Amino acid sequence: MLKIAWSDIYSHPLPENHRFPMLKYELLPEQLLYEGTIGNKNIFSPQKPDESLILRTHDPLYWDKLKYLSLSRSEIRKTGFPLSRQLVEREITILNGTVQCALYALQYGIAMNIAGGTHHAFSDRGEGFCLLNDIAVASNYLLDNELARQVLVVDLDVHQGNGTAEIFQNDSRVFTFSMHGANNYPLHKECSDLDIALPDGTTDAFYLNTLEVNLKNLLDQVQPDFLFFQSGVDVLGTDKLGRLNLSIAGCRDRDKVVLQCAKERNIPLVASMGGGYSEDIKIIVEAHANTYRLAQEIYF
Fold first, then answer.
1. How many Cβ atoms from other residues are within 10 Å of residue 65's Cβ?
2. Alpha helices in the chain (DSSP H)
3. Of 28, 25, 26, 9, nearest to 290 (Cα)?
4. Structural domains of the chain sorted by starting position, each given as residue range(s) with its CATH number in brackets
5. Cis check: omega of the bond before 21, within 30 degrees of 0
6. CB distance 121 to 78 below 8 Å
7. pLDDT tier at 23 (50, 70, 90 boundaries)?
8. Concatenated DSSP letters of 70-97
9. Percent of the chain with pLDDT over 90
10. 10 Å Cβ neighbour count for 163?
11. Termini Cα distance of the chain
12. What stretch of H or E contains 46?
């Protein structure tokens, strides 16, 4: 059974200039339920995590600043969100959703988080709409509890997974692979274990060939027994921030490559949604919905 993490808090109210990016967290589950791709039995509401889960990955001083809402103005500005208690509760709930998804993936082969993919969160700071790194926390949870030996992070958001790269820069048990726009945020890139920086205007054929060749090589070389997939849809040509030029069909084929590779090799996979900033919200929801449709088609 496909298990999906989602909670009302995922789409909590924000000031008007921040509300549009949050709409997808309401509309995506509604669309999937309406079309019958999933039922209510597929959805679970993640709980708040124990602090120890967060502190295994994130600096205690930084966590205290979040918990007590004491980030400086500069630190708040870098996150891109106005800081509030509700925002912190949202972030930790999403984070634990990815951890719980990892446990479901071990059972069912795949699980998915309607939010997450907060790959710009460093061990000691937040950036780019990311406060805490859900993929990093879930990876450490699996490794610490001997539920995985070697993790592969496949980050296909248009923006480099700089926070994830920093967190695991000295940990060979987590291989970070980021395929992103060369000229996109962040200006200063960290060093992932494998970075592929794509030129502006990259289209479907080049993108898909590059992904398939490199992913299959990595699966052979790294031999992961768990895979985290950051499946941001800001690679679309319609995206306001993306600068690449994938079609909806190309984005779907991207997801199919990743999911089929994991399924064929019996590697449990957790997908987190990542970014998406097209002007038309219907395009964002459709592109994300394709990931869930493929999961049902390939796995169940």
1. 19
2. 16-22, 24-35, 51-55, 60-67, 73-79, 85-108, 134-144, 162-167, 204-222, 248-264, 281-299
3. 28
4. 3-299 (3.40.800.20)
5. no
6. no
7. confident
8. ---HHHHHHHTS---HHHHHHHHHHHHH
9. 94
10. 26
11. 7
12. none
Q: Look at residues 293, 288, 273, 197 and name the one whose alpha carbon lies nearest to residue 231.
A: 273
Give whole-number Cα distances, 216 to 46, 184, 213, 220, 265, in Å.
32, 26, 6, 6, 10
Average pLDDT over every residue of 244-254: 98
CA-CA distance, 177 to 180, in Å (whole number)? Answer: 10
Quote the tokens at residue 297.
């088609």
CA distance 6 to 281: 19
> How many CB atoms are located within 10 Å of the residue 204 CB?
18
Place of tokens 């049902």: 296
pLDDT on residue 152: 99
pLDDT band for position 151 (50/70/90)?
Answer: very high
For 103-118, the pLDDT digits (tens) are 999 999 999 999 999 9
Say which residue the tokens 């298990």 belong to: 3
